[in-house]
Amino acid sequence: MMEATKTEHVAPILQVVRGSKVYGGVHALDGVDFDLRPGEIHGLLGENGAGKSTLCKAIAGAIELSSGDYFLAGQRVSFASPGEALKAGIAMVYQETSLVPSMTVAQNLELGMERFFTVFRRINIAAQQSQQALNFNVDPLALVETLGTAKRQMVEIARAVRHNARVIIFDEPTASLTPEEIQHLFHLLRSLRSQGVGIIFISHAIEEALNIADRITVLRDGKLIRTGPATDLDRAQVVRLMVGRDISATYYASHVSGADAWARPPISRERRPVLVVENVTMGSVVKNMSFSVYAGEVVGVAGLVGSGRTEIAHVICGARKRNFLRGGLIYLNGHPVRYRVPRQAIKDGIVYITEDRKLDGFFETMTADDNIYLGYLASTKHRRRLYSLKERRSVADRWIGSLAISALKRTLRIIEYSGGNQQKVVVAKSLAQEPTVVIFDEPTRGVDVGAIPQINAAIRSLAAQGKAVVVISSYLPEILAVSDRILVARGGRIVEDIPASAATEEKIMYAAIH
Description:
The chain is α/β, with parallel strands linked by helices.
């Protein structure tokens, strides 16, 4: 880390002194000291609810600290809005994108930099140049609402860089990116660092933070636990600092010993598959895709962004329609199905757990209890005429306990929860429907290391109960951890079907690219 040594004695460009933030009597931040030097990548780590996003939102002007001082280039500052912070040179790439869905990519990149007269040709060309400079392939004329999660993240990053900010905060920037795209991002971060930009890097992927960061700060329960050079820490030490206890280094391993161990019995091909996808085609994204999923197995689906992984899940659950002519066939328990809306798929026992929880994963103005209970009532097995408060509490208690959802105040709206706890509520809401086929799309995106084992165990538990489970993920260790078989998608087709025992990251990536 040569750059770290160069900045050791440089005055911080940004400082937070004894920063605190209180919500309803609960400290989200409790007397935290933090500083960032120019030309430094500073990793900010901690479990969900540790205060990482709260601290960065305060720095970026999205919220106001309850107490404490905030300095930029030695001057005490206080921003009333993110716009003020951006004018001062502080940009934030949010975990949940803050783009305007109804506007084009080019228009979103121009926000905050508009001229009196807008020349669309000029902003489209500028957007194209910005994307090319970052090696991002996103159409400037595309509406943001038509983009997948990964491409929205790319637009967020491009917008922050385009504002020539001297401090850029990245909140989980790699959560939806493929390994190849992550390497492009890291190259960009190092380039920005060499230009003197101060970078705050929030991530649940500890290995990434240790690889890219010069210094690491760990928060736990809103308090500062440690700040120091990244070279002085390893993964096990960071996990211990984050959670206050030891967690097995094999939480992404394919088999663990003890009470949480799971066995992987071979899937008998004499049994009928629960779900069969046969030559399904949807536009130019999904092309003659075919695969089967058997009861009691977890099928992982890997592939680059644009390979058709998420789109085939949307077709199966009725969120999108395959081609009317020559669109292929989908069979559920041997019977052909074609769903016009997801409600029909839910009735038949198929649920899809979305990759974008904020867009279509929950009702943000409701509590976690209400979200979980509404999921429970969505199943025809649980339909009732009267809304039962007692039953709602019982159902919510079961899933909040099972997935270790941190619900300090059950009266809070779900939008006020941390990102990881929101994700676990989305999972709970879907599993409460007691489905036959479960499709997880990026199930641990934005989930902290302490909670990942619970979600992995829930996935394996579903298979043990005889469910047919599909897991779509960009993170190969996760795919290898939970899958019995791994399908590799490329160019809208399934190009490989690999047993878990024979799968490696190298083999999967080779199939996904070549």
